[in-house]
Design a protein that fits this description.
disordered N terminus; globular; mainly alpha
């Protein structure tokens, strides 16, 4: 069991779990497998936007802070780009 210290006291466990599931989807569909078709790329773009919004909800009222280095830095769908993402996706980041 992971214990998260959230900036946003109103962010629920459901929100964190939703972000984690979205992050795992991005990893499996957009990082581990490079999107080839337009449909796959569009799905990755939309899902990454949702993931970023989810991270902002968790980190509210503070802005997202980029990490110094992420092992997925060369991928446009880097799930570990922000400190909050690194915290909730600890097993992949």
């Amino acid at each position: 069991i992971f214990v998260f210290v959230l900036f946003n006291a109103t962010a629920s466990e459901v929100t964190v779990t939703s972000c984690q599931l979205t992050g795992h989807f991005i990893y499996s569909q957009c990082i581990a497998i490079t999107p080839i078709t337009t449909e796959q790329l569009d799905s990755c773009v939309a899902t990454y936007a949702t993931y970023t919004i989810c991270l902002q909800i968790i980190n509210n009222p503070y802005p997202l802070t980029p990490v110094i280095y992420s092992k997925y830095h060369s991928n446009p769908f880097d799930i570990c780009k922000y400190e909050t993402g690194t915290l909730i996706m600890v097993e992949l980041c």
